[in-house]
Amino acid sequence: MSEVDPQLLDRIRRHDLDALIEYLELLRPQLLGFINKSLSDALKRKVEPEDILQEASLSAMQALPQFDLTDRDPFGWVCQQIERRIIDAHRKYIGAQKRAATNEVGLSTGSDADSGGLIEVLVASMTSPSQAFSRNQKEFKLLQALEQLPPDSREALRLRYVEGLPSKDIAERLGRTDGAVRVLLTRSLAKLQALLGDQSEFQTSK
Length: 206
Prior knowledge:
The chain is mainly α. The protein folds into two domains: 103 residues, Rna Polymerase Sigma Factor, Chain: A (Orthogonal Bundle), CATH 1.10.1740; 93 residues, Winged helix-like DNA-binding domain superfamily/Winged helix DNA-binding domain (Arc Repressor Mutant, subunit A, Orthogonal Bundle). The protein has 13 helices and no strands. The longest helix is centred in the middle third of the chain and has 30 residues.
């Protein structure tokens, strides 16, 4: 595991969000390795480890202000967030397939935005923003929050979650480094969450 400055760990335990973002970037290879080991072969065909890590990072940032890490290893805590996101993904993709096979009901009969978290609603909002209000009130609220982000943040989110580009390709489009884009994505999602406040329908599962 990469050497972590004790001062960085101390800042995380004092609920410093910037310290957590720095920590997540520093330990990115180890966290992706943990995800790859934890994903089943079936789930690997449905989700990208990068997406699991992004959602787990957002969940960790949401939980940090209220969570006591005094006697806990931040790495283990982040891995717990990852495990929860993997469970959520398994229920969504693998569980949904099993239910569809049993009930002979197409997966398109429900709305992903109705049951999903921030990222799912984000994709729906950015795909057809002009129809967001008529489709779903949550999408409209998220679209309003997106308008408050800087243009580069909106573009990075669009390229990642609508076009599905990896961070290295987004970096080429935006003229930034891969690491800078990953931090931009993380901060942009955190900013969206802050703009949306405590609206429970946007909170990812804990």
